[in-house]
Amino acid sequence: MKAFYKMSFDDLSNNMVILDCGTGLVEEHLWDFPILFLSTDFSAIASKLHDNKIPDLQIQEDIKNIHPFFEFSVLPLAFEENHRRWLIQWTERMERIQKELDHMVGDVFLSCEKTSTILQRFCRYLAKNKLIAAKYSKVADQIKAETLYYIGRNEFIPQLYAWEKYENMDQIKSYLMLGTDDMEAVLFLMIQRLAERNIELRRCEFCGKYFHPFSVRTVYCDRKNPETGKTCKEQAAKIKYEEKIAADEGRTLYQRRTKTYSMRVARSPAVYKKPDYLIWKSKASDALEAYTAGKLSYEQLDVILALPERKGQVTANET
Ligand SMILES: [Zn+2]
Fold first, then answer.
1. Model-level pTM greater than 0.90?
2. What mean pLDDT is predicted for residues 268-273?
3. How many whole angstroms from 210 Cα to the centroid of ligand 1?
């Protein structure tokens, strides 16, 4: 079968998709490629393309390194005269597809609504967006199916090679491969499988990118920040810890000031009036809440929590 992209869903029981990457078969999770595509920063590629100092070849290499299927998607470039123009058009098309799929995935796979399955939501989405449904039914025409045999990493092509040429016949495998020249068809096929298998996706609460949650409680993805080498999970934990320390500092200040003020009221009620204290305390607790929510700095909190000027006699241990 002649096709840029060849894949098989014969291993769906493990949520795996088998990809023919030219140099052999690669198995990955069903959600890996759609998530990678949806998380790709095409606008960064576009801005590189508008920077004349960056050569075409370098941008092409960047694209190829994203995934073998991205590498296949820029193969037609070999027949083009104007590489830059072709790459700009390629990026614009990818951005368009990404925007459309992002809308669909956001609506279908992220929903917290538990009364319907993802497949039901997917079909409802297509019914509501008839132009998209029509487009993808056309995309489906681009898909061919053929049973292919693989011996080890190589495709068995009986019309090309003699039977004797093949070694390791015990490793022969047969797959129903789906082939297409259109990356949009690849993505749609995978998203259809995700929907029918009711596979939930989420947006990472740290980086905002899609990921497949390990459990219902997972809210951060495992992507590593190339600069820090830390995953979103680790980075979020660190920030939470720092926030907790900061919140504790704010609470300590609040408790210390409240104690001082209430002692003054108890000792000299004629000088420090209780109603004034209560008004101050209510403002102070609002300020503490705002501080804990990150809406006030420690310095601002310190100003709001300032005690009234001392009047008359005070005890030495006041702070
Ligand atoms: Zn993340």
1. no
2. 90
3. 8
